[in-house]
Amino acid sequence: MSLFGRGSPTSSGGVNHERIEMAVNEIDMVSDVFNRIVSSCHSKCISPRYAEGDLNKGESVCIDRCVAKFFEVNKKVGEKMQSAGANAQATGASTFSL
């Protein structure tokens, strides 16, 4: 019997490895986006010479704007790629331009 009382770990209702792989891939993608945002916005908004332990108001505003712009651009690129993919599928072509 398993830890949570659901029978043996090898029962017919076992682990769906495909769903686990999809979840791991999604976590990897989200982590990558987060790391790119942190890297990009940190280098643009925060001086390499730390004067204080906390962000000052200018740095906070810069970070907010940077993250908002990052997501807006990401959204626009995704929409453009979706429409290009739909157009390519409709015409039978496999190339597109941004």
Written description of the protein model:
- The protein contains 2 helices and no strands.
- It starts with 16 loop residues before the first helix and ends in a 7-residue tail after the last helix.
- The chain is mostly helical and 98 residues long.
- It has helices at 17-45, 57-91.
- The longest helix has 35 residues, at 57-91.
- The radius of gyration is 22 Å and the shape is flat.
- Keywords: Chaperone, Disulfide bond, Membrane, Metal-binding, Mitochondrion, Mitochondrion inner membrane, Protein transport, Translocation, Transport, Zinc.
- It comes from Paxillus rubicundulus Ve08.2h10.
- One of its GO terms (biological process) is protein transport.
Query: What do we call the CATH homologous superfamily of the domain at 21-47 and 55-91?
Result: Mitochondrial import inner membrane translocase subunit tim13 like domains
SSE-based structural type: mainly alpha
Work out the helix count: 2
> What's the count of strands?
0
Q: Which CATH class of the domain at 21-47 and 55-91 is shown?
A: Mainly Alpha
Query: Order of SSEs, N→C?
Result: HH
Mean pLDDT, rounded to whole units? 84
Task: Report how far the terminal alpha carbons are from each other.
Answer: 55 Å
Global Rg: 22 Å
Q: Percent range for helical residues?
A: 55-70%
Which band does the percent of strand residues land in? Answer: under 5%
User: What is the fold named in CATH at topology level of the domain at 21-47 and 55-91?
Assistant: Helix Hairpins
Low-confidence stretches: none
Largest sheet: none
The global form is flat
Instruction: Just name the CATH architecture of the domain at 21-47 and 55-91.
Output: Orthogonal Bundle
Domain Tim10-like: 21-83
Subcellular location: Mitochondrion inner membrane
Main location: mitochondrion
Family: Belongs to the small Tim family.
